[in-house]
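User: I'm preparing a small set of examples for a lab meeting where we compare how different chains pack in three dimensions. I only have the primary sequence for this one, and I'd like the structure in C-alpha cell form so I can line it up with the others. Please keep the answer compact; I'll paste it straight into my notes.
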Amino acid sequence: MASTKETLIEKFRSRDAAVAIVGLGYVGLPLAVELARVGFRVTGIETDEGKTAALNEGRSYVEDVPSEALAPLLKAKTFCAVTGFDVVRSQDAVLLCVPTPLNKGRDPDMSFIVTASRAIAEHFGPGKLVVLESTTYPGTTEEILLPAFQPVAGREGEDFFLAHSPERIDPANKRFTVSNTPKVVGGISPASTEVAAALYGQIVERVVPVSTPAAAEMVKLLENTFRSVNIALVNEVALICDRLGLNVWEIIEAAATKPFGFMPFYPGPGLGGHCIPVDPHYLSWKLRTLNFNARFIELASEINSHMPHYVVDKVVAALNERGKSVKGSRILLLGLSYKRDVGDLRESPALDVLEHLVRMGADVRYSDPYIPALNYNGIVLDSTAFTEEGLASVDCVVITTDHSAFDYEAVARSAHSIVDARNALAPLLLKDASLRKKVKRL
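Assistant: Understood. Below is the C-alpha cell output for the 442-residue chain.
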C-alpha cells in the first residue's frame, strides 16, 4: 500500500489534485492561474466578497493576470473562488499567500498568517500538504503553522506535510514569471520538501530545495536585503555626487561597463512595494529578539527613507530659482505608484513626497493612469489628465514614477521647471543641453 507521501506525489505529478490558494492578490492569483492552466483543480480562498465575485465572473483585478486568462479556466472548471475555508477538507494542498505587513512600530504583523492558519486548521486533516508563501522572519513556519496543524493532522512528514516556499513575484515583469522563476522550497522534514517540490515542479522550470523552512524564509530576506542595501548605497552616492557637482547617472553608467565585480543599481525617490522596504525589517526584528543589532540593514533603511525628503529639497531649490516659495506653488507629480507601469501604491515613496509638499502648503496634484483616485492620510485627490496645458499650468513638475505612458518630450517642452527623480529625461538631455537649465535630477 502506498504511503501518504507517495500518494500525494503521484497526485501532483499526474496533476490529479485539488489545490487551495489562500489569498488571491498579486502573489496568489498568478499562482492559482498557473496551477489551473496545467490541469490542477484550483480553489482560491479570498475573504473579500467583491474580489471573489469579480474572479468568478472572469474579471481580474491583478495587472499580471489579464481577464482573458480566466475565461478558459472558469469554463473548464479548473478554477473558482470562494470566501469560506470549509473547502479545505477536500483539498490535497493548501498554499498560503496572505499579506505580511509591518505594524506602526515597523515590527512584523503576523495576524494574517495566524488568522489563516487557524481557519485552515478547523477543516484540516491528514493527507495534505501546506505551504506558506508569505514573506516572513525565519522560524515562522515552525513556530506558527506547525503547532496549528499537528493536533488535527498527526505526524508531520508522515501524515501531513508542511513547507515554506517564498514568493518571487515581480509585478509587471514580462521576462520572469511564475513558470520561469526558480522556486525555493524548504520542508519541516525531507519528506515535506519532496512533496512540495513535486507540486511546484509541475509549474516551474526549476525547484531549488533547501534544508529547512527557516532556510527558505531566510533566502527571501537575503534577496531583498541585498537590493535594499545596494539601493541605499547608490542613493548615498547620489547625495555625494550632488555635493561634488557630478552626475550620478553618468557615474553609474560608466562603472557598469566593467564586465566583472560590479552590478548597477540606480537611485530614486525611495523604496516602494511590499518587499524591499519591508522584508529587511523582518530580519532585523528577528535579530533583535536574539540581542543582535543588524546595523547595516538599519543604516540602509535610514538612507532610503530619507530620499523623499531629498526630492522635496530639489523641488524647493527648483522653485527658489524661479523666485517662488513652496507655499502656494502649484506642483504636479507624475506617477504615484511605487514602480513603472503598475497600479500598486504600497510603500510608494511618491506618497511621502506628496505628503511633505502638502504639509509645506503647496497646491499639489498628480497624474497617474493606474491610480484614478487617492485617499491617503486625509489627502483626497483625483488623477489629473496628462496634457501639455496641464504641464504648463503648474510651477513645477516632479517625475516620481516613470510610467511609459507619459510623453516626456511634452514634459520637457511644456513644463517650466522639472525635478526628475527617475532619470526619465536622460535621452532628451543628451540631445538638448539647454534643457538642463530647467531640470533637476537626483
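A couple of notes for your slides: The first strand starts at residue 18 and ends at 22. The mean pLDDT is 95.

User: Perfect, thanks.
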